[in-house]
Specification:
The complex is a heterodimer of chains A (about 250) and B (about 325). With about 250 residues, chain A is α/β, with parallel strands linked by helices. Chain A has 8 helices and 10 strands. Chain B has about 325 residues and is mainly α. The longest helix of chain B has 27 residues, at about 225-250. Classes of the chains: A alpha/beta (about 250), B mainly alpha (about 325).
Chain lengths: ~250, ~325
């Protein structure tokens, strides 16, 4: 539901001085970033800059060695992916994490199926109705909520994955290269879906290699280089050349 | 209502799309077991008419003889759908039947039933521990326990068969009937209905299929994948235990050979019934029909007068063909 009523000043998610090392090799150092509701922030950086480490820390897969995470102003500790999910953070993974032989509606409710009260049997009708409504709201077009995932196009699958994240996220949707495998038309379709998440009052963090896309979608751009955050720029006040030189470190 | 078209403009060949999506939905593979069942039934009905294939006695014999295999098949559907396999069920059948029979030499039937079922559940759980919590491949684990418990079954009674003289037990699991319906049929029906409901209509069933389809997706969706793997192998063991009791009840005796020859039949029944060897898809009802198909095949080949070696060759070829048809769609 819409939680704007709370109107807290604190950002939805705040990372403070995050540090993560693997076997002594520092992947991320002194990383800080605030994410607000209704805002799309892009995380950019070269390969190995530490983007996926950040994603995994926010989604609870990795535990940072230093620094703190705050969710709505409260310090949190994500033990694993499920605890991050329980706290309202949903991730759209690069490999989508869909069960390809199952239907669209069962994927939307994967692990969180709705059941009838008395006997605990699956309430397929309600899951289908909710799925249909959500897909209509997000303008995601698929033949049927009962279609099997593997019969859908790449864009449709990505649509389903984003719809699922939207359905369950109360605070933040994390997108890891959401259009890396898609064609031009499908990319623009997915970009429109991502934009519409702002209206749902969610914070969105998108990791992308595609700078054109980053400029089309984001409100702010956060640049990582060699594990360090080298700057955050409001998208309207910067240009590609600046971001590129921040990414590469060449002025 | 089943299918919604979310296309805004309906004149850009969406009818064609709808027809195509209808055809994909109606995948032949799903119905192959029913068509195959019908085809083989009609074939035997026509060719073996004079040999008594269609007699009530013969048909009911087929159903009674397949009862244990059908129960084993139900357990295997759970294991395969979750992306695991259990090939140890044959040995579990023998151990369960022997344990039940031995307990009933001095104890009432209830203790025999509990001990037999308990043995099945315990061996299934042992498989489950190795697979789910030690991360070993289920094929190798159950291959090992297949041999291990075949040995245990032989050593329990020194290869001797144990008679079951408990009347309650032999009626409950074998010769008895309720309202004219043989108890073996009731057990089979109950197991199929319960299995189908759990598999298709509960969250557990959905999690089993999701685990077999994409374990990573299941894991990140909050499904406890190791727990599912443990439980499906335990269920398979429990089903094998029940099958052992049915054998002991019907034959009024237990022997180490029980279940020994069911491995190929049961796997074939399950695959032909529409369960994917690779996980993520399964059907309890399909496995039941597949099991009946195998029983009918067995029966028909005997009535045709084939020698044992001829039967084995014919059965092997038919299973090969059926499995090829069943899996064809999967590699599309």
């Amino acid at each position: 539901m819409n939680e704007r009523l709370n109107d807290t000043i604190a950002p939805v998610l705040s990372l403070r001085g995050i540090r993560k090392a693997f076997d002594g090799i520092v992947a991320v150092e002194e990383f800080s970033l605030d994410l607000d509701r209704g805002e799309i922030v892009a995380l950019v950086g070269d390969n190995g800059a530490g983007k996926s480490t950040i994603v995994k820390i926010i989604s609870g897969v990795h535990t940072p060695n230093g620094g703190t995470l705050h969710l709505d102003g409260k310090t949190v500790d994500f033990a694993d992916a499920s605890s991050a999910r329980r706290k309202g953070i949903e991730v759209v993974y690069q490999d989508l994490a869909l069960a390809n032989q199952q239907t669209v509606y069962m994927n939307l409710f994967l692990g969180r199926e709705i059941t009838h009260r008395p006997f605990g049997l699956l309430d397929r009708r309600r899951m289908m109705t909710e799925t249909r409504k959500l897909l209509e709201d997000l303008d995601i077009r698929i033949p049927s909520t009962r279609s099997t995932i593997r019969n859908l196009s790449g864009g449709q699958r990505q649509g389903v994955a984003i719809a699922r994240a939207t359905r369950w996220a109360q605070k933040l949707v994390l997108l890891d290269e959401p259009t890396a495998a898609l064609g031009v038309a499908e990319t623009s379709k997915v970009e429109n879906i991502v934009k519409s998440l702002k209206d749902r009052d969610l914070a969105v963090l998108i990791v992308s290699h595609n700078l054109d896309q980053v400029f089309r979608l984001s409100d702010r751009i956060c640049v990582l280089r060699r594990g360090k955050q080298v700057g955050i720029r409001p998208t309207g006040e910067t240009e590609k050349n600046e971001i590129v030189s921040m990414i590469t470190g060449l002025a | 209502m089943a299918r919604i078209s979310l296309r805004s403009n309906t004149n850009d060949g969406s009818e064609l799309t709808q027809i195509r999506s209808f055809l994909t939905k109606l995948d032949v593979q799903k119905y192959v077991v029913y068509l195959g069942f019908l085809a083989i039934f009609l074939f035997f009905a026509a060719t073996l008419h004079d040999d008594g294939f269609l007699s009530t006695r013969n048909l009911s014999n087929i159903v009674l003889q397949t009862a244990p295999a059908t129960i084993m098949a139900i357990g295997l559907v759970f294991a395969l759908s979750a992306g695991e396999i259990d090939i140890s069920f044959g040995s579990i059948v023998a151990v369960s039947a022997l344990v039940a029979a031995m307990v009933m030499r001095g104890q009432p039937a209830l203790f025999g039933i509990l001990a037999g079922l308990g043995a099945g559940i315990a061996i299934g759980a042992l498989n489950g521990v190795f697979v789910a919590f030690l991360g070993l491949p289920s094929f190798l684990v159950t291959l090992a326990t297949l041999g291990l418990f075949a040995g245990v079954a032989r050593s329990l009674t020194n290869l001797q068969s144990v008679p079951v003289l408990n009347d309650f037990f032999t009626e409950f699991f074998g010769s008895g009937s309720v309202a004219g319906i043989p108890s073996l049929v009731i057990w089979t029906l109950a197991a199929v209905i319960a299995g189908h409901l759990v598999f298709r209509e509960t969250r557990f069933g959905a999690h089993v299929i999701a685990t077999g389809d994409n374990p990573n997706a299941a894991q990140v969706s909050g499904i406890r994948v190791p727990r599912i793997r443990f439980l499906v192998l335990t269920i398979s063991g429990a089903c094998a235990g029940l099958a052992g009791l049915l054998y002991a009840g019907r034959l009024q005796a237990a022997k180490y050979t029980l279940g020994e020859s069911d491995l190929m039949t049961v796997i074939a029944a399950v695959i032909v019934g529409g369960t994917a060897l690779t996980g993520g898809r399964g059907s309890i009802v399909g496995a039941c029909v597949g099991s009946l198909l195998m029983g009918m095949l067995n029966n028909g080949l005997i009535l045709m007068g084939l020698s044992v070696s001829g039967q084995m060759i014919a059965r092997g070829l038919i299973i090969l063909f059926a499995v090829a048809v069943s899996l064809r769609e999967f590699n599309r």
